[in-house]
Recover the amino acids of this structure.
C-alpha cells in the first residue's frame, strides 16, 4: 500500500480513543486494522483478510498466523484460556489448509495469580498441543502489576505447512457456491457468558472449543473447495460478510438449516442476542462449488466433529456485498456487519 | 523431559502466587519457567536456555523466537514499546546468528487508549521493522477493559534464517574464553526509570534500544566465536550467570573494563542500584576464544554501534558456576543471581 493511500485511509478512522468495540471482530475492529495497522505496517506479506499467510523461507513455503487470548473467565465448561490459545491459532492454520507444526507462546501473567490455576491452564494448553500434534517451540513470560491484567493473557503464533496443490482463499469464491457449517453455532459464546453468571443465568452448556483439524484435513483436498474459516469473534454472520464482501455478491443463508442448540437459542431469545454473531471456537464454515456440496457434507457428517454439519446457504448471482437471512417463516432480513459488542472478552 | 522429572521439578516452585519478581529475568523467573512451563510443555523443540531455536520445516532450518513487551511508560527517550517490540525479538534472532525475515505482532490495547498515541507507537514499530529489514506478516489485536491493561502490551514472534556453518550456543563456551560487551550497560533501564519521574529524578539519558544486527552480522562468522546474547531483563550479570552456569566454570568480570555512562553510575549510586543488573536493549555480550578476542574487539570498535566495546572478563579454569567481579580497588565480590526486581516493567 502506498503512503498516499495509507494517509487517505487513515482519515477513515474517526475515533480518538479505543473502545471495546474495536476488539469485537466487527466493523470497528476492521476499521482499526484496515485504517491504522495495515497502512502503517505496509508489509507486502501482511494479508489482513487471511487466517494465515504463506511465507517463503529458504526452499520452503510455510504458513504463519497469530492470535491473542483474553477470555474471561479464564476457565469455562469445555476449556480454558490455555486450550483456547492452542486451538485458536492451530485452527487458523487448519482452515488455511495447513498442518500446524510449531507454536510460540507469550504469557502476560497478573501479579497475584494463583500458581495452581496457572498450572491448570498450562496443563490444558500442553494437552491441547499434544492432541493437535503441535510443539511449543518458543515462549516468553511477563508479569503485570496487580489490578492491571485480567489474570492471564496469552498470545500464540503458529507455523505450519500446507500440502502441495491446496489453494484456498476468499478470492476463490464464485456465484453459485454453497455454504456449509460443520456444527452448531454460538455454543462457545453462550458457554462463556453462562460461566460469568451474569444476568443470574447458569447452565450446563459446553463450549465447542476444539481442534478443527479433523474437519479441515478431511475436506482440504476436495476439488471444488474454495475457502474455509472458523467463525470466532463476530460469529457466522461475520464470516458470511467477509465472503460476501470478497465475492462482491449477495450471500443468502437459510435460517431453518443453520444448526443452533435449543439452550443457545433460549438464552439468545431471553437476552436479545443473535446466535449468528456469537463466537464458535471449534466450527468451520466452508464455501464449496455447489456440485461438490453434498459430497463435502457427507465427508463432514462421517466425522464425530461434523455430525451436525449442514448446507446453510449459497452465494447468489446478484451483485452486492450483503448477507440475507431467509427466516423460518419465509421472510427475509439483512444480517448487518457487527457494530456493538454483544459479548466482549470471549476469546 | 519425563513425567517423573516434571513432577519432581514442580516441587521446586514453592510459591503459591505469582509476584513481580517472577517477571524480572532472575532466579524467580527461571524457576517459574524451568519448574512449571518447561516440564508441562515438555516439547523437545523448546530450549528455555536459547534466545532462538532452530526448527526444521520442510527443507529449511529456520530460527524462531518470541518476546512480550509491557514497558512503562510506553514512550521513553530513545524509543517506545513499538520499536522495542521489533528490536527485542529481532535482536534475539540476531544474537543467535540469524537474519530476521518475518514477525507476527499481537497488540493487547486498553479501552480508552488515545488513537494518536497508538498511531505513534505503531509508526515507530513500522520504522524499526523497515530499518531491520523484517516484515510484519501476521497480526492480531485484542481490546482490554479500561483499568485492566497498562495502555498497550505487545508480543512479537520472529522467524529468521542463519547462514550455514554458524554454530553458536552456551554449550560452546570453554574455560579460557574472553567476554566482550559491545557498549555501555544499563542505559535502557535508567532511561526508562527517569522517564517515570519516580524519586523526583529527571534526565536526558537515552535508552540504548536499537537493532544489534550490525554487531552480530560483523562477528557471527568469526572463527572462535562461541556465543552471543543481548543483556535485557536482568542485565549483564544475568547473562554472565547463564554463561557460568552453562560452562560450569567461574566467570570473572573486571569492573574497570565494563563501560558504564557517568549518568547511569550516578543514578545507581544515588538509589543503590547495581548497573550490571539493569536492562540493555541494544547491546551484545559475546564469548570468544581468547585468541580471537582482540580481533573481535577491533571488528566491533570499527562500527558506530560498537565504539565503546570492551573485553570485560574471562571464563576461568576454576570449576563452579558463579560470577566474580574484580573491583576498581583490586577487591572481589560475587555477582549473585538476581532475586528482587530492581526495576519492573522495563521491557
Amino acid at each position: 500500500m502506498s503512503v498516499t493511500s495509507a494517509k487517505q485511509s487513515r482519515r477513515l478512522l474517526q475515533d480518538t480513543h479505543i473502545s471495546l468495540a474495536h476488539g469485537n471482530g466487527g466493523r470497528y475492529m476492521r476499521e482499526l486494522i484496515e485504517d491504522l495497522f495495515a497502512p502503517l505496517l505496509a508489509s507486502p506479506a501482511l494479508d489482513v483478510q487471511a487466517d494465515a499467510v504463506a511465507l517463503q523461507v529458504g526452499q520452503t513455503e510455510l504458513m504463519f498466523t497469530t492470535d491473542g487470548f483474553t477470555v474471561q473467565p479464564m476457565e469455562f465448561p469445555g476449556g480454558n484460556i490455555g486450550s483456547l490459545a492452542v486451538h485458536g491459532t492451530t485452527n487458523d492454520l487448519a482452515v488455511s489448509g495447513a498442518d500446524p507444526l510449531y507454536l510460540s507462546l507469550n504469557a502476560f501473567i497478573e501479579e497475584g495469580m494463583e500458581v495452581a490455576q496457572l498450572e491448570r491452564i498450562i496443563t490444558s494448553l500442553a494437552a491441547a498441543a499434544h492432541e493437535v500434534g503441535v510443539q511449543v517451540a518458543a515462549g516468553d513470560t511477563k508479569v503485570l502489576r496487580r489490578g492491571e491484567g485480567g489474570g492471564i493473557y496469552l498470545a500464540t503464533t503458529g507455523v505450519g505447512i500446507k500440502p502441495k496443490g491446496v489453494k484456498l482463499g476468499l478470492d476463490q469464491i464464485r456465484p453459485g457456491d454453497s455454504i456449509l457449517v460443520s456444527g452448531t453455532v454460538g455454543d462457545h459464546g453462550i458457554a462463556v457468558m453462562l460461566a460469568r453468571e451474569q444476568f443470574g443465568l447458569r447452565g450446563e452448556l459446553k463450549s465447542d472449543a476444539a481442534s478443527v483439524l479433523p474437519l479441515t484435513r478431511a475436506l482440504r483436498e476436495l476439488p471444488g473447495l474454495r475457502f474455509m474459516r472458523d467463525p470466532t469473534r463476530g460469529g457466522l454472520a461475520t464470516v458470511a460478510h467477509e465472503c460476501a464482501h470478497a465475492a462482491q455478491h449477495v450471500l443468502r443463508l437459510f435460517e431453518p438449516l443453520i444448526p443452533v442448540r435449543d439452550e443457545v437459542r433460549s438464552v439468545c431469545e431471553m437476552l436479545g442476542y443473535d446466535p449468528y454473531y456469537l463466537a464458535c471456537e471449534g466450527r468451520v464454515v466452508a464455501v464449496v462449488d455447489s456440485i461438490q456440496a453434498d459430497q463435502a457434507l457427507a465427508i463432514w457428517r462421517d466425522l464425530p466433529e461434523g455430525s451436525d454439519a449442514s448446507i446453510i446457504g449459497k452465494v447468489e448471482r446478484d451483485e452486492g456485498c450483503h448477507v440475507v437471512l431467509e427466516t423460518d417463516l419465509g421472510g427475509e432480513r439483512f444480517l448487518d456487519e457487527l457494530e456493538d459488542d454483544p459479548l466482549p472478552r470471549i476469546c
Q: What stands out?
A: Chain A touches chain B through 85 residues (CB under 8 Å). Chain A has three domains: 1-48, 49-166, 170-334. Chain A is about 30% helix and 25% strand.
